[in-house]
Write a structure and sequence with these properties.
Largest sheet: 8 strands, mixed
CATH superfamily of the largest domain: SGNH hydrolase
Distance between the termini: 79 Å
Shape: globular
Number of strands: 16
CATH topology of the largest domain: Rossmann fold
Radius of gyration: 25 Å
CATH class of the largest domain: Alpha Beta
Number of helices: 17
CATH architecture of the largest domain: 3-Layer(aba) Sandwich
Number of domains: 2
């Protein structure tokens, strides 16, 4: 074959590939969103989007994204065909952030079909075989079929790309529905695939958020639903369990606990689905942050500090954009002088080994470790390494050695392994490791729920005692910070500050830090950016005083 013919053949192949790719990139990716109130967007407000910098602009229509919907229960709001994606009824649904993130990551156009109604159950309303009540399954099926038929009439090439499902809270109030959630969900997925003639349709099953009040007072029932969900996703290769317990939750009154994600949580909820979908395409979720040069001399001693806790240690509402407005942008820069590793959100994000200390939180957030480290470096406390282990959707009972009946929420074993592994890794690099202290911020949600507030100090005391045994350090220091607890008549019957004082009084290696002079916070329970920065500095100062 002559060179000219070869060139011609290769050019045809290349052209075919590019044309095929172009055709695929023009194929509309259709996603279905379905479920109950936390899929609707209950207790969210469009006007609040501006408070969360990462999601600015999502109150505006996304003209390039098609949207077809039927939302609500008795009084439904319908799009009556395809429209541009935008908020409906002044609420914020997860589809808004999902669509923006996905369209920024792929070249193909996106369309969303949404059918959701609060207070509905899989065992009845969404039952594909014998729907009762609001008969959501036939309603949703008709909506999807009609929406797809309209695309066909318009000559639009499409493919069903994914089904986002968030539901289950209402099934836990019916004993039969609760114990059969797994089999019912398996049947639900099978019937959708059959009825849409899409046997390989991928499902993304959203975790019920354990940070809500139901995650505490209905812990056994929430756990039963999660077990049913996992029973399906663990055996169905086309179904994925999507964690959501680390996202923000609406702050309620009078104690702060709530049932719904609210505005911030809904935006992050959609982000979670987008991340899961993009992972299925092989797209990395976070840029690599390698520690290019090891910061400590071989053979030197390293002071290892463990930061642990819940939503404020994680930094739920400390946003990088607000740090810049406060003149704290330098705080966010990577610090290669401190080795840092982390396990955040109950494992939702983990570091790839040791990284330079820096902003590592998801959703453009950060924790008190940045300002904490700044104080320790300024005080010249020698080599400092930081390992951070948090889960903002946990309660103190999850950190105890015995845990609760909700075994999937038992944090303590992984917490101990995380610390032990951190020590081994530093020792493998030739260092003598001094476990300088565990810095723990007391659980915020526990302070707002009477049974948990009553047990908080005792449970923490048990965890501290067992950790000293597990690490073979009977004098291991715990620095426990406590912000002003929820001030409400019902929970004020328990003086949890006095309880912590009593525990600290009999334990010389438990340093109780009253973080009572932090900047005023806008919401109960959660510290904003200024509060998280101040908390880190307070912790650093108290440790430096006694080190």
């Amino acid at each position: 074959m002559t060179r000219q013919i070869l060139v011609f053949v290769y050019s045809l192949i290349a052209a075919g590939l590019s044309l095929g790719q172009a055709a695929d990139d023009s194929t509309v990716r259709v996603f279905i969103f379905a479920g109950q109130s936390n899929m609707v967007g209950s207790d969210s407000k469009v006007k609040d989007i501006k408070n969360f910098p990462l999601y600015a602009g999502l109150e505006q229509p996304q003209e390039g994204v098609r949207f077809s919907y039927s939302i609500g229960r008795e009084n439904k709001t319908n799009s009556d065909g395809w429209v541009a994606l935008e908020p409906v009824n002044n609420t914020v649904g997860p589809e808004l952030s999902f669509a923006r993130r996905v369209t920024q990551a792929i070249d193909a156009p996106v369309a969303i079909i949404k059918c959701a109604a609060g207070g509905t159950h899989l065992g009845g309303d969404w039952n594909p075989d014998e729907p009762i009540g609001f008969k959501m399954y036939p309603l949703a099926l008709k909506l999807v079929r009609d929406s797809l038929a309209e695309l066909e009439r318009q000559g639009v090439r499409y493919r069903l790309e994914g089904f986002m499902w968030h539901q289950g809270e209402n099934d836990m109030f019916n004993e039969d529905y609760m114990k059969n959630y797994g089999p019912n969900l398996k049947n639900y997925l099978a019937k959708w695939r059959r009825d849409l003639k899409s046997p390989k349709l991928k499902f993304y099953i959203g975790e019920l958020c354990t940070k809500t009040i139901w995650g505490m007072d209905l812990r056994p029932r929430m756990y039963a639903i999660s077990r049913g969900q996992r029973a399906v996703t663990e055996v169905d290769p086309l179904a994925e369990y999507v964690p959501t317990s680390h996202v923000g939750v609406e702050i309620g009154h009078p104690v702060g606990l709530h049932y719904h994600y609210g505005t911030l949580g809904q935006l992050q909820h959609g982000d979670n689905y987008a991340a899961a979908y993009l992972r299925s395409l092989g797209q990395a979720q976070a840029p690599a942050r390698p520690l290019k040069r090891w910061p400590y001399k071989k053979g030197s001693e390293v002071n290892l500090f463990i930061l642990a806790g819940h939503r404020n240690m994680e930094g739920e509402r400390a946003f990088v954009q607000d740090a810049a407005k406060l003149g704290q942008a330098d705080l966010l820069k990577d610090n290669p002088g401190i080795a840092f590793k982390y396990n955040l959100g109950g494992g939702y994000r983990k570091s790839d080994g040791w990284e330079p200390l820096g902003q590592a939180g998801y959703y453009d957030t950060f924790g008190p470790e940045l300002s904490f480290a700044g104080v320790l470096q300024a005080k010249r406390l020698g080599n400092v390494a930081i390992a951070k282990f948090t889960h903002s959707g946990s309660q103190i009972i999850d950190w105890t050695p015995e845990g609760s009946m909700a075994r999937s929420r038992h944090i303590y074993p992984e917490f101990v392994k995380f610390i032990q592994q951190s020590i081994r890794e530093l020792e493998a690099k030739g260092h003598k490791v001094r476990l300088a202290g565990i810095v723990y911020h007391l659980g915020e949600n526990d302070m707002s729920f009477y049974p948990y507030r009553k047990e908080a100090a005792g449970r923490l005391q048990t965890t501290i005692g067992q950790s000293r045994k597990d690490f073979g350090q009977p004098e291991l220091k715990w620095f426990v910070s406590q912000q002003p607890p929820t001030d409400e008549k019902g929970v004020n019957r328990i003086d949890v500050v006095a309880d912590m004082e009593k525990v600290a009084a009999v334990d010389p290696n438990l340093i109780h830090i009253k973080a009572f002079d932090l900047p005023p916070q806008k919401k109960r329970l959660v510290l904003d950016t200024a509060g998280v920065i101040a908390l880190g500095r307070l912790l650093g100062e108290r440790i430096a005083e006694g080190d």
